[in-house]
Amino acid sequence: MRIKIWSGILLVLALGVATLSHATQQESVTEKEAAHLALQVKNETRHAWESYKRYAWGYDALKPLSKSGHNWYAQSLLMTPVDALDTLVLMGLKKEADEARELIATKLSFDHDMEVQNFEITIRLLGGLLSAYQMTEDPRLLNLAKDLGQRLLPVFESPTGLPFTHVNLRTGKVRGKISNPAETGTLLLEFGMLSKLSGDPVFYNKAKRALVATYEHRSKLGLVGSAIDVETGVWVNKNAHIGGGIDSYYEYLYKCWKLFGDQDCKMMWEKSIPGVNQYLADEVRGELWYGHADMDKGTRNATQYGALDAFMPALLALGGDLDRAKRLQESNLKMWRLHGMEPEALNYQSMLVTSPEYALRPEIIESAYYLYHYTGDNKYRAMGKEFFLDFVKRCRSEAGYTALKDVRNSSREDSMESFVFAETFKYFYLLFAPKKTINFEDVTFNTEAHPFWLNQKKKIIKK
Ligand code: DMJ
């Protein structure tokens, strides 16, 4: 135990020395250094997993400061093990992956009289189970996914086809008629894969209808708002942006075409992205940002951007717009360097932080990974290295990793969201690991970074 604590302290000290100054930071990362960083990411993932095991085994998540377990609902749905499993497999952490898989296969049940949020359960659990099934071919994971998919289906029974936000897993009773584009439009990758893997088209059809219905409610400018009534299709908040509550709707318009070759999705993406670039993109001091605007008038509502918006360079790069992707990633870096860690939100006009927390979010790293893939420019690995060193220095704790309450002073929050495994560690690892670790062209990551393969035979993973 003492040895483990000392090795943790030494790592933090070593990383601290390495980050003494951004000015001295090298602009590229050699292959040897990248291999070393990939190993460090793997070790840090193991540290977080061991902490979950020790203090929160069987719970949804670890509370890293109080060193205890936490459940989202009355019963655990094993959020952390399910979100972590494909990352553990990908990194070749075999013992850890096997113990996560056995816990899930033997203990996870969805037969609870309990209301859950469809969006989070879909992207984390349905996505995690399907991806882990594709990687391990353990049929128990697919059976769990089929059971979950059936239990979630009632959400789609609204007059518009836009899903309700919540459903009771046992009774199928739905609730929550005020939703948003992210929740109504970020379901097709997971439900679509469930259809492909189960042979039942119902899942694909319902989730596609929800995505198309979201798109059909766009404004004349091609924008969507922040809140919509799923029973009437009336927008109750017309603030358009690319941040939380809308973000992954745009992501899935593109990705459902990439994964399934669905031409309707391609058309919806092509009709939507020009409005986003025309009315939400903003030039300030010669920098590119994306702000908020009224969905009908296109007038600027706010010059706000943050950790969730930081996924956009990845999506722009995926969609072929490398110029905007590169420029926006420079703004992401500027946001990060403001306080040596990105805040949840800032005003990019004044550069003042408006929401100071850091929830261990992955989006900025995801963007570095996509840009490194598409450009081969080593500066994105150097950026990732800077993010990783700051991340370890400021968020590593004795038990796992800890969210920050305020990036300006490093006060900590007793929280380690499961997406730190599904996404944050995974994108760090993929950025530094050899390209052959996963064949980027054959894979589509869901919004929780769970990789899906349409052609199961192509899912060759090399460690
Ligand atoms: C994840 O659950 C998903 O990436 C989602 O789309 C948005 N936010 C979190 C991580 O920040």
Descriptive account of the structure:
This protein is of the alpha+beta class and 463 residues long. It is 51% helix and 12% strand. It contains 16 helices and 20 strands. Strands 3-4-5 form a 3-stranded antiparallel β-sheet. Strands 6-7-8 form a 3-stranded antiparallel β-sheet. Strands 9-12-13 form a 3-stranded antiparallel β-sheet, with no helix packed on it. It is globular and about 55 Å long.
Low-confidence stretches: 15-21
Small ligands present: 1-deoxymannojirimycin
Helix share bin:
40-55%
Outline the biggest β-sheet. Answer: 3 strands, antiparallel
* Strand residue content: 5-15%
Strand ordering within the main sheet: 3-4-5
- Give the helix/strand class: alpha+beta
CATH top level class name of the largest domain: Mainly Alpha
The number of distinct β-strands equals 20
CATH topology of the largest domain: Glycosyltransferase
- Round the mean pLDDT to the nearest integer and report it: 94
Give the overall shape: globular
Radius of gyration: 21 Å
Helical run tally: 16
Q: In the CATH hierarchy, what is the architecture of the largest domain at level 2?
A: Alpha/alpha barrel
Number of domains: 2
Distance between the termini: 29 Å
